[in-house]
Amino acid sequence: MAATQRIAAGLAVTAACAMAVSGCSSDGGPSKRGGTEKKPSPAAAPKNAVRLIGDGSTAFTGTQPKQPRAERLAPGQRPPQFVVFSWDGAGEDSQRLFSHFRKVAKANNATMTYFLSGVYMLPEDKRSQYDPPQHNAGSSDIGFNDVAGVKETAEQLRGAWLEGNEVGTHFNGHFCGSAGGVGQWSVEEWKSEITQAKSFVKSWKGNTGLKDAEPLPFDYDKELIGARTPCLEGQKNFMQAAREMGFRYDTSGVNDQVWPKKKDRLWDLSMQLVPVPGRSFETLTMDYNFMVNQSGTVSQGDPDMHEYWGDQMRDGLLQGFDRAYNGNRAPLIIGNHFESWNGGTYMRAIEETIESVCNKKDVRCVSFRQLADWLDAQDPAVLDKLRALKVGQEPKGGWPAYLSARPAPAPKGVPGAPAAGQR
Fold this sequence. Notes:
Layout: E1 51-53, E2 58-60, E3 81-90, H1 97-107, E4 113-116, H2 147-162, E5 166-169, H3 187-202, H4 204-208, H5 220-223, E6 226-227, H6 235-244, E7 249-250, E8 254-255, E9 262-263, E10 266-268, E11 271-275, E12 282-284, H7 287-295, H8 306-328, E13 332-337, H9 345-357, E14 363-366, H10 368-377, H11 380-387, H12 399-402
Parallel strand pairs: 3-4, 3-13, 3-14, 4-5, 6-7, 7-10, 8-11
Antiparallel strand pairs: 1-2, 9-10, 11-12
Helix pairs in contact: 3-6, 8-9
């Protein structure tokens, strides 16, 4: 039998998640098999020599396919409109939402970031391998997986990476609140959690006995460069641990729709506040937060309201998109869960948002890694000018005048730098 269904393990985790601007990944472990949706065909492996790592759970297969080249803006060039769709606690279960949104992404020229929960790669009978900070070994506030669930999740991760998507981490046990939650963890405890999250990904074949299964086509020590913390808690100590362990960004904060900057040498790619149509406030760009503002912590509220609630989330995200697209062009950062809360209305809202925005002119629906690459390639002076623009503010006189100064050349070796012999 598979691990506990996500919703069952979810909304009782902590009342702190109910705050309008809090984020909560309240997903339990992947649920029982049995979905009828046809899974997408596995992506073809890169035509490189495969070098297995460790027990063969992961492998080095060369440069990740389908990665755009990050280039500097030309003088006076309007910046692209970036949109990042990301998923907390990514795993494949009977809802088949991971495989479904892979297809949605491919159909709409989008790549995404999947924040994998490490315990989704650890079978229930091996749960004692997990030694969470401030909790007993084998404890978790979300469920572990079963062998079939680990295999299916690995298949989705493999295909997603080969299609150009990013695999981040949502850590392991999803502990929130005051009783040993992540907000109370030290830097060293965060390092332990990160190391264990990596280890479960790097040893899933040995832990399941699926020795003949295809490996994940990446070195997770190199692939993992960013994360979102459970319930958006514990960010300060996590960021110190992440920085020392080679991460490049964090997306555990809350911000307005303005251009990002580095915080303690990590890109602060926080989620943002967008309008709630028909209400007088804004809320976080996350399905959970729209739900809390609509049906409270009840994940299956009034069925007569489901369609309206989904439309409200979609329209709020689109309003946020429009004011950036027609204004300061700040990247729009969106977080979600593979959940069927309120009849799946938020999954419909996200899908309709993807279909609406990702095919527009100058729009790039990218992963966090790709956004960080682009930001690293830009002239710092240009980024400073972009950050000076307020929410929805279009530069006075237009983009050509606002960014007309010729930027300094990119440092040697930075993405977007001129090739040898070029100026």
